[in-house]
Design brief:
The complex is a heterodimer of chains A (305) and B (384). Chain A is mainly α. Chain A has a domain of 164 residues: MetI-like (MetI-like fold). Chain A is built from 13 helices and no strands. In chain A, helix 1 runs antiparallel to helix 13, helix 7 crosses helix 9 and helix 8 packs antiparallel against helix 9. In chain A, 30% of the residues are buried. Chain B folds into two domains: 149 residues, Periplasmic binding protein-like II (D-Maltodextrin-Binding Protein, domain 2); 161 residues, Dipeptide-binding Protein, domain 3 (Roll), CATH 3.10.105. Chain B has 13 helices and 14 strands. The two termini of chain B are 37 Å apart. Classes of the chains: A mainly alpha (305), B alpha+beta (384).
Chain lengths: 305, 384
């Protein structure tokens, strides 16, 4: 086990290096740079000064080497789009916000999603099943920014029960969480339902019933646990996306999170921030995959590491 | 030029570096407001500067500047969380809601923004537009009032018959109004005199647009339809990508025979707008008399009235020689809650009742005489 873990962690390190190389060459290969102005071009001398200041006038391999050397010392540079703080400070300020939003969303997706899926599976082909399936289909197909605008217009503008945006007290969190959680919740509900429907017909469930076990025990202990395996596969890859934020929800609800920087960094050619966000995502993906592999062994004893 | 510059304080610059104004602890202000707090990614909070000794005393104790996406600013305003939204950030859908709501309509305050004028222009060096009568004919078939009412909407523009917008120095809108007036009868007659009766023998032309949004595409289509209907000339409207358009416009010789474009001011002097039409500029119309008049006026250091008159003579020449058919001046309609009061929000002599040029710069926190009246007690207002 320890050896396996060590191997996986070493693999993660390798992924880290490869991702950093790929991201670094790709972002420099994209036309345009951080100091290209569309309307009023900078005088060549001023531009050259800026490039020198940020080390962008040197050969690419040298820039990469320097970047990695600084990263090893914990220095990720200063974001071009927010020059009053370091990249580390920026992430420390924005990521917890995105993580809180994503964390609540995951909890809701898991609890509400599995419950709905479970009920739909048990009451298969009844109106309950159809309602859950309908809502779940809606949740998967309607993008969260559309849902966000609906919620905003209804609860903030028309009814004025909740604020239109911001981040601070709990009232500001309700609408973004609802909009953000609908998709993953629907996904979980759909998968729980189909996987439960399959498991309920399995031989060992019939055996469990034949032994005279109560319905609750049959469902919760025997059926649900086995039905969870596909869920780990589905929800696992959602987690990195959910906890690193989303530009749509954050911009619509004025949430000072990390999500928008994934997009703005690329648009603005904010090299230090592109690198930091890429590495951050690589790290979260690596860890989440490792964790879900470990989780499999707990849920399904047949899987061995 | 000082209006456009933000001077820095030498001592603060030396002690805390170029970004000293981003931190309330090191920020220095000589203006009516001072930075109190900056919650990054969320809001800027300014408070009245207790040490301010100038004449522009603030009547507002605290200004909270919320960073929001333009898509949801109006929602915050409707929900009573914002007292003011800059019209530049309102979408056509927002403006539609405002136009159809009697209360919101009262809260909408149009002003001249950056004095932007949209106009049609011609390649005046080559046929058929080298003929003044042809250009004049085109200038008489643009029904500005109709366009404003049906497409542009009254809150978003006013008719233009000349280049300088009312409120801009040396503007002479009333004096020049007749030259390019809407008059299809005169237009038909002029086109016949130019040798194209009912448009016979006139080539089909393409009207180039510079990456315009739907509203101005519709304006161009309406003008094309009016040209077809009144002059019998086929006009195809083609909305070009920004760079394609600009490169073709600036090419020497120009590659655009017939186009629609706009210009807004860079600095508050007639020379700025008029210089667009100097020879060798972005349009290929050349008029030595106009050049001489504009340059002389620009360098003139005598009485202001006299200088204004010189620019007005030059603009008359411009309008009369029709290198351009002026369509409309864009207005920006800010929304202010009714409890905001002050002389800025009362109509000036051009009828604009909003914070606007001169005296306003982007990013300046100068709210002049504006104050929050007692009516605020009845407003359903929440500070987010």
């Amino acid at each position: 086990m320890a050896r396996y873990l060590l191997g996986r962690l070493f693999g993660l390190l390798l992924v880290f290096v490869i991702v950093s190389m790929l991201a670094f060459t790709m972002m420099h290969a994209v036309p345009g740079g951080p100091f290209d102005e569309e309307k009023a071009p900078l005088p060549p001398a001023a531009r050259a000064n800026l490039l020198r200041k940020y080390g962008l006038d040197r050969p690419l391999y040298e820039q990469y080497g320097l970047y990695m050397w600084n990263v090893l010392q914990g220095d990720f540079g200063i974001s071009f789009q927010s020059p009053t703080e370091t990249v580390i400070e920026l992430i420390a300020r924005t990521w917890p916000v995105s993580m809180a939003l994503g964390g609540i969303t995951i909890l809701i997706a898991l609890s509400v999603g599995t419950t709905l899926g479970l009920i739909a599976a048990i009451k298969q082909n009844t109106w309950i099943d159809y309602t859950v399936t309908f809502i779940a289909t809606l949740g998967i197909t309607v993008p969260n920014f559309v849902v966000a605008i609906w919620l905003l217009l209804l609860f903030a503008v028309r009814l004025q029960w909740l604020p239109t945006g911001g981040w601070g007290d709990w009232r500001t969190a309700i609408l973004p969480v609802l909009a953000f959680a609908l998709g993953p919740t629907a996904l979980v509900a759909r998968y729980t339902r189909s996987s439960m429907v399959e498991v309920i017909r399995a031989d060992y469930i019939r055996t469990a019933r034949a032994k005279g076990l109560g319905e609750r025990v049959v469902i919760m202990r025997h059926a649900l646990k086995n039905a969870l395996i596909p869920l780990i596969t589905i929800l696992g890859p959602q987690i990195p996306n959910l906890i690193t934020g989303t530009i749509f929800i954050e911009v619509i609800f004025r949430i000072p999170g990390l999500g928008k920087f994934f997009v703005t960094s690329v648009l603005l050619r904010d090299y230090p921030m592109i690198m930091a966000t890429m590495l951050l995502v690589a790290m979260t993906w690596g860890i989440v995959y490792l964790l879900s592999d470990l989780l499999y062994t707990m849920v399904d004893p047949r899987i061995r590491i | 030029m000082m209006l456009y510059s933000n001077p820095l304080q030498a001592r603060a610059l030396a002690e805390h570096g170029g970004l000293y104004n981003s931190d309330p602890a090191t920020s220095v202000s000589s203006g009516p407001f001072i930075l109190k707090e900056w919650r990054k990614g969320d809001r800027l909070i300014y408070e009245a500067n207790p040490k301010y000794r100038g004449t522009n005393k603030p009547y507002i104790q605290k200004i909270i500047n919320i960073g929001a996406s333009p898509a949801t600013m109006f929602a915050s305003y409707q929900a009573g969380e914002a007292d003011f939204v800059n019209g530049a950030y309102l979408s056509p859908a927002d403006n539609e809601i405002i136009a159809n709501d009697p209360q919101l309509k009262l809260e909408s305050h149009p002003h001249q923004g950056d004095f932007r004028t949209d106009y049609l222009f011609f390649d005046t060096k080559n046929p058929p537009f080298d003929d003044l009568k042809v250009r004049q004919a085109f200038s008489h078939v643009v029904d500005r009032d109709g366009l404003i009412q049906s497409i542009i909407k009254p809150s978003q523009g006013i008719p233009a018959y000349s280049f300088l917008m009312p409120g801009f120095p040396a503007a002479n809108s009333d004096g020049l109004k007749e030259i390019q007036r809407y008059d299809p009868t005169v237009a038909k007659q002029l086109l016949a005199e130019a040798g194209y009766p009912e448009g016979q023998g006139f080539p089909k032309v393409t009207l180039w647009l510079r990456n315009e949004p739907p509203v101005r595409q519709a304006v161009a289509q309406a003008i094309a339809a009016s040209i077809k209907q009144n002059l019998g000339i086929e006009v195809e409207v083609s909305n070009k990508e920004f760079k394609t358009f600009t490169d073709a416009l600036n090419a020497k010789p120009t590659q655009i025979q017939f186009g629609m474009v706009s210009y807004g001011f860079d600095f508050l002097d007639p020379y700025n707008m008029m210089s667009v039409w100097l020879s060798g500029g972005r349009h290929n119309w050349e008029n030595a008399e106009f050049d001489a008049m504009v340059k002389e006026a620009a360098a003139f250091t005598g009485a202001t009235d006299e200088r204004v008159a010189m620019f007005q003579d030059a603009e008359r020449l411009l309008v009369e020689d029709v290198p351009a058919v002026f369509i409309y001046h864009r207005t920006v309609s800010d929304v202010y809650k009714p409890y905001l009061k002050g002389t800025e929000l009362e109509p000036d002599r051009n009828g604009f009742a909003a914070i606007h040029w001169p005296g306003y710069t982007n990013g300046s926190m100068v709210v002049g005489s504006m104050y929050i009246s007692q009516d605020v007690a009845n407003a359903n207002r929440t500070i987010p």
